[in-house]
Amino acid sequence: MYGRHPTAVKVAEAAQTNTSKTYFGSVFVMDDPLTLLPDVSSKRIGYAQGMTVSASQTELGLLMIFHFVFTEGEYNGSTISILGRNLVFSDVREMPVVGGSGAFRFARGYAEGKTHSLDVKTGNAILEYNIHLHLGFRSFRNAGMKEKNSATASTLGRVLATCSKQAKDYGSCVASKVHEVEKDMCLKEFLALKNCMQHTIRGKA
């Protein structure tokens, strides 16, 4: 938005920017309001913060680096990060989601942006973004860890219950000979405990 309180400002330009049809080399920084609906009067839920660089000499194509920063609701404090090419005059522009934080940690996916409205006189525009996310890595990892931990705890419990006598015999043997350590000390008891544990883990106890 431009005017008295602009939310997008030019911070740099190249020597040829002013003579370029695509404003090549211009750099803008933005801190735009993020609303629930594509309407300036809609509820604000955060900010779209980042920068755009005019990176094409033949068409109005922007390099966009920006974050959707959520400040309301269940996603308060979380962000979605986008890095991609934005062809301004395309009906729909697709850009990759490269990450996120908070609720969107490990996020991957893509964002589809389109111009909802444009005021040619003021330069103000309302952009609409539909974001498609995949959070499967995080979910799979957490689920896998829970299943693995559960399986490990179950196996350990069976070993302790089944091989308690062998463990006690081995511990007593080691304790009685702690001052006279020698090769193969308590080998018989150790092998008995080892065999019991292996058979239990394999489900043969």
Automatic annotation (TrEMBL):
Cellular component annotations (GO), alphabetically ordered:
apoplast
What does the similarity note say?
Belongs to the plant dirigent protein family.
Alphabetical list of Pfam families matching this protein: Dirigent
| Keyword line | Apoplast, Secreted
So which domain of life are we looking at?
Eukaryota
Assign the protein's first listed, main location to one coarse class: secreted
UniProt entry tagged with the keyword Membrane: no
Put simply, this protein is called Dirigent protein
Q: Which organism is it from?
A: Microthlaspi erraticum
User: Where does the record say this protein resides?
Assistant: Secreted, Extracellular space, Apoplast
What is the protein's quaternary organization?
A: Homodimer.
